[in-house]
Write a sequence for this structure.
């Protein structure tokens, strides 16, 4: 993880986005501490972590919406990013149809829009006003919108927020189909420590620093998650995340380690190994 | 025919409504009512400085509105103060400074009411040229930046993530607000110009399906407000600004009638 960006890029053309040593503080409060992150072509990366872990902040830094105090972001040349924000509140004072929302920054033909909405299962809503949509419908519209930009990387910040449980499963199912069909990489954020998509290639556990990085199936086998939780839905894999150390959010998310502290060996612990 | 002051006032008012219609929609979409109000209130300081320096008050208003707008955009980067507190401070400080400076100008007879609330007798042929010239420039720029400005109004983060230079469009839009405040001061006055931006736009919201419809309907509601208001002002010898705003409020209220008792 500590290889210089140039070295990585020279050896690997597949890298879409590479973050190196990202740190950000608000006053004395460290929001993000030395984050390294690489996203390759076609992979699904999920960032999980509790509320206040800095997930959305990290996404905003990666997208260039806010700038970090330290660290460097390198993007592949001509990288196209489709972004589905965590919250998109459109005030009722603004009359806007689904079609117009989708064509906000780039014009698309009506047929293309209908095709994209069909894919996410909401093509009948094309002429509806956006304020009339339910949470799940709105997320599907935003997903269709992001896909119409033909992104190399799709960034989804809490894609199932405000969606009920059955809607959640359907939405995750839809997202995993997206990669297969469009071949784009997906970077997804979830606050749910226990639910991560089965099709995720890499899980990054963030709590102001990177706690651990690992493949979900490794993690799953390792923790015998099925014995613990069973399979709730085909679209889900359950990934139990055990912390044998405490996190103290008041103290900038630093670890409190003791002698028994043993991060699982199958998971890379780039930062913790140094600390522990 | 243009010698008739009422005709000049009507032409001026209609010209202003043509600009405030679409611009006012963006003010309500972007929730910038208080921001616009602050810039307008600073206009009285511009009037005072204009009188002191012997330049046209319209130019004075334009300059102070631009300075206040730039100050606001810069100060918003410091997070130590909530934006509405900041606006309140700048709004009333600049207004007070303007009023105090004007009270020192004893060698000129200044009709303060005219600057605060508009005066239909005050519109000259030159003012008409300023309104229609300035208006043509604003509307042209607005049409050019319409799509990115709309994207920015829906969600600034999304627009920025999709490659729109939001700082640039925010700045251009703010400058357009400064211009409309300056050219509308004669007919509406600094205290009420924001109402002419907001009320017609909100009044036609329920009848609009697209942003463009709302902008066009808002122009129509604005023109109706100006025409009704100016006739009331002429008939009852009332200040033109408040008369126009009362007319727009009546239009807003009538527009609510079909929706009373309905959900949302």
């Amino acid at each position: 993880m500590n290889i210089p960006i140039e070295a990585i890029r020279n050896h690997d053309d597949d890298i879409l986005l590479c973050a190196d040593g990202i740190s950000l503080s608000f006053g004395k409060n460290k929001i993000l501490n030395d984050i390294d992150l690489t996203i390759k072509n076609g992979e699904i990366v999920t960032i999980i972590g509790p509320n206040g872990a800095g997930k959305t902040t990290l996404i905003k830094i990666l997208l260039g919406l806010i700038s970090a105090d330290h660290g460097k972001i390198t993007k592949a040349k001509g990288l196209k990013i489709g972004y589905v924000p965590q919250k998109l509140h459109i005030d009722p004072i603004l009359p806007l149809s689904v079609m117009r929302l989708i064509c906000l920054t780039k014009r698309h033909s009506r047929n293309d829009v209908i095709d994209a909405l069909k894919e996410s299962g909401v093509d009948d809503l094309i002429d509806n006003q956006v304020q009339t949509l339910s949470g799940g419908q709105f997320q599907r519209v935003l997903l269709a919108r992001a896909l119409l930009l033909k992104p190399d990387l799709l960034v989804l910040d809490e894609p199932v927020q405000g969606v009920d449980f059955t809607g959640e499963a359907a939405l995750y199912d839809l997202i995993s189909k997206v990669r297969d069909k469009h071949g784009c990489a997906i970077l997804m954020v979830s606050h749910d420590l226990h639910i991560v998509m089965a099709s995720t290639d890499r899980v990054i556990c963030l709590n102001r620093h990177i706690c651990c990085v690992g493949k979900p199936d490794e993690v799953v086998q390792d923790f015998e998650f099925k014995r613990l939780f069973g399979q709730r839905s085909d679209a889900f894999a359950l990934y139990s995340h055990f912390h044998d150390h405490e996190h103290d959010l008041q103290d900038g998310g630093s670890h409190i380690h003791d002698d028994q502290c043993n991060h699982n060996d199958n998971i890379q612990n780039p930062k913790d190994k140094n600390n522990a | 025919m243009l010698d008739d002051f009422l005709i000049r006032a009507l032409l001026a008012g209609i010209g202003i409504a043509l600009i405030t219609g679409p611009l006012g929609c963006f003010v309500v979409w972007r929730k910038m009512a208080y921001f616009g109000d602050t810039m307008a209130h600073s206009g009285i300081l511009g009037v005072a400085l204009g009188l002191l320096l012997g330049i046209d008050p319209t130019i004075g208003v334009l300059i102070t509105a631009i300075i206040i707008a730039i100050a606001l955009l810069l100060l918003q980067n410091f997070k130590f103060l909530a934006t509405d507190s900041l606006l309140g401070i700048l709004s009333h400080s600049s207004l007070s400074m303007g009023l105090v400076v004007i009270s020192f100008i004893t060698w000129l007879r200044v009709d303060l009411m005219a600057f605060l609330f508009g005066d239909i007798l005050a519109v000259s042929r030159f003012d008409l040229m300023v309104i229609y010239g300035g208006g043509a420039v604003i509307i042209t720029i607005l049409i050019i930046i319409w799509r990115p400005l709309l994207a920015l109004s829906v969600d600034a983060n999304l627009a920025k993530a999709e490659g729109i230079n939001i700082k640039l469009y925010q700045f251009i839009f703010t400058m357009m607000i400064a211009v409309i405040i300056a050219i509308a001061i004669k007919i509406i006055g600094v205290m009420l110009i924001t109402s002419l931006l907001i009320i017609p736009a909100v009044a036609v919201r329920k009848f609009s399906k697209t942003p463009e419809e709302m902008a066009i309907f808002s122009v129509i509601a604005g023109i109706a407000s100006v025409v009704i208001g100016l006739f009331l002002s002429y008939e009852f010898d009332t200040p033109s600004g408040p008369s126009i705003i009362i007319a727009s409020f009546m239009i807003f209220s009538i527009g609510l009638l079909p929706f009373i008792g309905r959900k949302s």
Chain A has nine helices and 13 strands. Chain A touches chain B through 23 residues (CB under 8 Å). Residues 92 and 131 of chain A are 6 Å apart (CA to CA). The two ends of chain A are 18 Å apart (CA to CA).
